[in-house]
Amino acid sequence: MLKNILLIGLIPATLAVVGCTTTPTVKQQENLNLLQNKTWVLTHIGSTEYPSQTNSPMIQFSSDLRVSGSDGCNRIMGNYAVKDHHLNLGSLASTKMYCQDMTLVEKYTTALHKVTGYQSYDRTLKLVDQYGNVVLQYKTTP
C-alpha cells in the first residue's frame, strides 16, 4: 500500500520537474551558435588593446558547456552556463607554469572573474561585467 502511494506521488513530481526544463528559443540558439565552437583570440582588456601575439590569451566555449583556453601562459578550463546573454563562468582551473611576464596573465584572470554576460556578433565577442561594461574583447577567424 505504501509503495503505491509513493509511486502515485513520485510520478507527477517527476513529470513536473522534467516538464520545467526549457529548450532554447530560436533566438537564444542563434546567440549560442555565435558564441560556441570558435577560437576567440583576445584583442582588448577593458579599453586597452592587446595586439595578437604568439601566446595571446584565447578562449573557446564548446557546445557541451565546457570552456577552455589560455591566459597567455597557462591553460585554463572549466564549465560555463548561459541564459539569454548572461554568462556564468564556473570555477576555472589552470595550469601553474612559470612565465617571464605575469602582468598580462594577472590582468586577464582578474577580468575573467568579472564576467557576467556576453555580446557576440559577426567575428567579435565581448565579455561584459554586471553593469554592461566590456571587460574582455575577442576576435575569431571566419
UniProtKB/TrEMBL annotation:
Signal peptide: 1-16
Entry keyword Signal: yes
Domain DUF306, chain residue ranges per copy: 35-139
Keyword annotations of the record: Signal
Pfam families: META
Top-level taxonomic group: Bacteria
Cited InterPro entries: DUF306_Meta_HslJ (IPR005184), HslJ-like_sf (IPR038670), Hsp_HslJ-like (IPR053147)
Annotated protein name in UniProt: META domain-containing protein
Natural source organism: Acinetobacter sichuanensis
